[in-house]
Amino acid sequence: MTSQTSISMPDIRNLLGFLDVTVKSFSMMSLERQLAAAQDLLLENPPIDVAVLGQFKAGKSSFLNSMLGQQVLPVGAVPVTTTITRLQYGTRERALVRHFNGLTTEVPLSNIVEFTSEAKNPGNKRNVAIVDIELPTLQKYPHLRLVDTPGLGSVYKYHQSASENWLPSIGTALLAVSSDRPLSEHDLELIRELTSHTPNIIILLTKADLLSSEQQEEVISFFQQTLQREIHLTLPVYLYSTKIKTADYKQSIEQDIFQTICANRDDEFLRILRHKTRALSQSCLSYLRIALHSSLQADLNRDSLHEQILNEKVNEDLMNEELSIISREHQRQTRPMIETYLEQFLPPLIKKVKAKLEREIPSWQGNLWKLSRRYEAWVSETLSEEMRQLSKTEHIHFLGTQKKAHASFSRSLEAFRKFLGDNIENVLGVKLAVVDWKIDVVEPDHPDIAFTKSFDVHLDLLWFLIPMFLFRRIFERHFMKGLPKEVGINLSRLAYQWEKSVNNAIDAMRIQATSYIHEELTTIETLLSRTQGQTDDIKRLIAQIEILSEKISN
Ligand SMILES: Nc1nc2c(ncn2[C@@H]2O[C@H](COP(=O)(O)OP(=O)(O)OP(=O)(O)O)[C@@H](O)[C@H]2O)c(=O)[nH]1
Ligand SMILES: [Mg+2]
């Protein structure tokens, strides 16, 4: 039962700390009781509980009375013990009745039957959690607490649950099996359960007087074979009888069990605590592996969700490329379109400005240099005004490519949203909320129309050599001849100015469209990753618990 260990309390405390966090954060409610019991042991460092467990009427209370040499606990032919009863050393005989509501009352020892027996306290109507009995005669075992438990398998189901709930607190287990009911399935179940709470399980074959010595041997060998076959365990078996050879049986139990525990109390305590902590960490690990599995599963699903929803049809880069192509295609056509439209204005405009020049030029005075400057200023002023007028009245006809680009962007966005919506509906079964993805028509800026000269300069360099009274008509004709070209150049400039404006507007719309797509995809991505699995956290936790468990193994 004992062995020298190098277990360290801080290692156990550390592991329990980890288990505490894990049990709480993963809501492992089924491990809470076990965890709390181990933490209480660590905190309180109490005497070692040697508990007598077993089927109802196995002789548990009788065994304890016999060991104590005193009829302390109620016994009987029908299920009796109804509450956990702990017996330990105390300077005077007394019984403390602890209630579930936290109240504790002291009662005379002779009165405990009122609380611990089914007959006097039916259905535990007095709400007794535990009865603690202190006896001076237990001075020889100061580090022990003997525990009587309600029997298992009786008609009183709550007897069973009272004992089972208490199992996490157990130190050493004495499993009482009556000689007339050798090892039931319930006993095997109990042993299986006990293995996660204590390293010390001993079988007590009670009422040994009911068997001959051959039969006793037969029963013991049957026990060992069954335990080996069913649980792969070999457990020590002790005989007991309150009727015959009681002193002998009692002596070997005192020597082998009680005294051994007391002599190595601290070591035993650590061994028991380590056993509980390791068992707890094994259970915790198996839950964590389930959590890991489902988290991995969720990650896999999430990845495939991601792939299915954000597939190639709703790829942001491809969409941006598509929008850029739409932009470029339309922008390329802006200028030719405006120029073609403006062609119709060339002949009437030439005619108009020619007539104006003809009317105004005779009044111009001065030499060629002055005439040339005057002509330049006149052309610039006149044509700028004409272009401004054209811009004002006709600009609506310059916006054709912008309108087409707007329609293309809108169609493209609509298609994108439809693909995305279909994917989401197919994969998640939910409809994408309807949002307003209207692209605003960006009004192009009105260009600032102010044109300057576009003339040949070689003529006016010679001005001082030319006698104007001879050549004035020639120069007037020259100016007149140059006018159509000036009109053409100015119309072309007008087209260029508007091209810049319209194309800027197309760019602004493209930027609107790309940002719609970017925002939508970012939203979907965020939604898909919000349920991110805890795979990495769980893996880390598993590794840490495994390392710490390893540390407290021998
Ligand atoms: N022949 C024989 N009978 C015993 C022995 N020990 C106990 N009994 C009888 O077995 C019956 C049950 O004894 P208890 O001690 O009340 O058994 P228990 O396991 O405490 O029963 P519950 O508290 O109901 O679970 C009583 O009638 C006892 O007289 C024994 O060593 N030999
Ligand atoms: Mg009893």
The CATH architecture assignment of the largest domain turns out to be 3-Layer(aba) Sandwich
Distance between the termini: 15 Å
Task: List how many beta strands DSSP finds.
Answer: 9
Strand content: 5-15%
Given the structure, what is the number of helices?
16
Radius of gyration: 51 Å
Bound molecules: guanosine-5'-triphosphate, magnesium ion
Helical residue percent? 55-70%
CATH level-1 class of the largest domain: Alpha Beta
Classification by helices and strands:
alpha/beta
| Corresponding CATH superfamily of the largest domain | P-loop containing nucleotide triphosphate hydrolases
Which stretches of 5+ consecutive residues score pLDDT under 50? none
CATH topology descriptor of the largest domain: Rossmann fold
Average residue pLDDT:
86
Largest sheet properties = 9 strands, mixed
Shape label: rod-shaped
What is the number of independent domains? 2
Walk me through the structure:
The chain folds into two domains: 10-263, Rossmann fold (3-Layer(aba) Sandwich); 305-532, no CATH class. Strand 8, helix 7 (213-231) and strand 9 form a beta-alpha-beta unit. It has 16 helices and nine strands. The chain has a nine-stranded mixed beta sheet with strand order 4-3-5-2-6-1-7-8-9, with helices on both faces. The two termini are 15 Å apart. With 554 residues, the protein is an alpha/beta fold. Helix 10 runs antiparallel to helix 13 and helix 12 runs parallel beside helix 15 (468-530). Bound molecules: guanosine-5'-triphosphate and magnesium ion (MG). Guanosine-5'-triphosphate binds at residues 56-62, 75-77, 79-81, 150-151, 206-207, 209-210, 241-243.
